[in-house]
Design goal:
Layout lengths: L4 H9 L5 H19 L2 E4 L1 H16 L11 E5 L27 H8 L3 E6 L11 E2 L3 E2 L1 E2 L2 E5 L5 H8 L5 E6 L5 H7 L2 E4 L19 E6 L2 H12 L14 E4 L9 H12 L5 E3 L4 H26 L6 H11 L3 H21 L5 E5 L12 E4 L2 E4 H4 L5 H4 L5 E5 L13 E6 L4 H13 L17
Parallel strand pairs: 2-3, 2-8, 11-12, 11-13
Antiparallel strand pairs: 1-3, 4-5, 6-7, 8-10, 9-10, 9-16, 13-17, 14-15, 16-17
GO molecular function, one term: catalytic activity
Protein name: Amidase
Length: about 450
Amino acid sequence: MSESIAQFAAQIRAGKISPVQQCMQTLHALEAGNKTYTVATHILAERALHQAQVLERKIAAGQDVGPLAGIPFGVKDLFDVAGLVTTAGSTVLQNNPPALKDALVVSRLCAAGALPVATLNMDEFAYGFATENAHFGTTLNPHDVRRLAGGSSGGSAAAVAAGLLPFTLGSDTNGSIRVPASLCGVWGLRPTQGLVPLEGVYPFAASLDVIGPFARSAADIQSVAEVLAGQSFAFEGHAGSIRVGVLGGWFAQDLVPDLQAGLEMIAGACPSARTVTLPEIARVRAASFVITAAEGGNLHLNRLKQTPMAYDPATRDRLLAGALLPAAAVIQAQRIRTWFRHLMHDVFDTVDVLIAPATVGPAPLIDQPTIMVGGKAVSARANLGLFTQPLSLAGMPVVSAPLAPQLTPNTQLPLGIQLIAGPHKENMLLAFAQELERKGLLGFPVAHSQHQRVA
C-alpha cells in the first residue's frame, strides 16, 4: 500500500476497509511469507481474528477505536503475549508457564486498535546480530535471500521489509533494531533510555535494553512510537534550523562507496552540517561489549549451571564468558559509560542531530563469514554493530533510516544511517528524518515479492 499507517487506520475507522478482511489477508500473506523468509515463531491467527471482529463491531456502533485501528503488527519473540510462553528465541524457557497478560507496550498498541498477529524470530536471548536461530531457523533478507537480515530483531525487520506487516516491535541493546533495519532497508527507532516501558519484555542486558518499532517510513515510526511512549512527538520548530553534525573518525572508516557518497549528499542538504569527531570510540565500544556480556551472563548463570546443553552452543559460550568477567573490568566499563554519556550531552550543546552510518555496508551473504574493517578481514557477525554499539552507551534516541535507492546506484541493496539526538528529543529527531525523506534522500521500497502486500 502507498498510504501511511495513519491514513490506512483512518479508512478502517471510516468503514471503507473491513478490519476482519484485512486481518485475514495479512495472516494469509504472513503464512506464505514465513515459508520463504522465516520471520515468525508463532502466528496468532485465532486471537487476531477475534480482535478484528470486536473492532469491526465497535466501528459499526460508532465507537472510538483508536489511532492504529485495524493495523496488524508483530512483536519480537521476547515480548509477553497473553497465553503464550515467552521463549526469547530459545527452547530453554519452553516449560515456563504462559504469560498471564501482554507486555505493557503490546497492551498499549491493542488499546489503540492495532492487531497482534505474530511473534517474530530473533537471535537466541537477543545475543547476536544475525538472527541465525538454532531452534527456529535463520531469517532471510527479503531483498536477497542469500543474505543476512541482521539481528537480533531480524524477524521484525524482515517482516516489514517483505511487506508482510506495516510495523513490528523489536529490542535494541547494542544495535538490535538499528542493524537489521539498516540491512533490510526499513526504519527503526531506539528511543531514549527509559522512555518506553519494558514491563513484560524478557531482558538481555537490563541497563542497556530499549524497545522500539520498525516501519516503512518516518511518519509510520512516529505514529507507533507515540502510542508506545504515551505522548505526542509533534515538533513545533522548523526542521531547516536544526544544527547537524556528521560523525567522523571511527564512523567514517571502512564504508562502501555508496554509503560514503550518500552521507555526503545528506550533509550537503543540511546547510549547518559540520564534522564532529568523538574520542576514544574503540574503548567505548569495548565498554559496551563488557557491560552487555556481564549482565547477560549474570542473568543466565543459575540456568547455565543447571541446563547448559539446552542453549545454542554459541549463545552458551558467550554467556559463560560474560559470567566469568572480573568485577574490575565491569566497573571500568561503567566508568567509561558515565564519561561517554557526559561527553554526548556536551556535544548536543553545539549540535541538535548527529548523523552516522549504521553498518559499514550492505547485508553480508549468509555464507560470508567476514567483512573488511581496517584493511583486515574480521568476523561479520561480531562486527555488524561496529557503529551502533558505542552509541548505545549514551542512552539517547537514535533513528535508523535507509538511504534512498538513487543514493545507492552501485550497491542496489539497502544501506542504513543513524540519526542521533539528545535525550527526549524524539520529536525533533523524527521531524528531521521526515524532512530528509521528503527531500528524497531517505526511504527504501519494500522488497519485490510474490506475496501480496498488506496494510
